[in-house]
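Anyone up for a design puzzle?
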């Protein structure tokens, strides 16, 4: 039974058999996570995965910095152009994402990296841009 079918069963059990809903939701997410783990080997080494792995190194910095960055950019970009069309809105969103990632990378280098343990810092530097493989 695929994850979609189990999720559908979870939705139906929510309405008709409430006692089965937690089991069905848990089973559906178990199937989805296993599918992602199985796809990990096939996707390793692709450029987008390598880039996302590099972003994962400073993801906490991204979490900390994205909201203030987006708010500052929103104020700045509102003077330049109002998103009256879909194209202007997409360009603004792209600029916000790229700038947020760049500011987070700088924040990581200047602030967060100093608080990492020395062995962890060496590990982060060694694994930056490499995919992590979990032995089975």
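Challenge accepted. My sequence:
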């Amino acid at each position: 039974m695929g994850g979609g079918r189990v999720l559908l069963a979870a939705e139906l059990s929510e309405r008709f058999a409430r006692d089965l809903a937690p089991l069905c939701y848990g089973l559906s997410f178990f199937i989805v996570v296993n599918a992602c783990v199985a796809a990990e080997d096939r996707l390793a080494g692709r450029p987008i995965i390598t880039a996302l792995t590099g972003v994962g190194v400073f993801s906490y910095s991204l979490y900390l910095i994205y909201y203030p960055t987006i708010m500052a950019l929103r104020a700045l970009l509102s003077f330049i152009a109002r998103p009256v069309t879909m194209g202007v809105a997409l360009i603004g969103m792209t600029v916000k994402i790229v700038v947020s990632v760049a500011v987070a990378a700088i924040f990581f280098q200047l602030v967060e990296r100093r608080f990492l343990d020395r062995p962890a810092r060496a590990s982060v530097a060694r694994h930056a841009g490499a995919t992590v493989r979990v032995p089975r």
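A detail worth pointing out: The longest helix spans residues 86-110.
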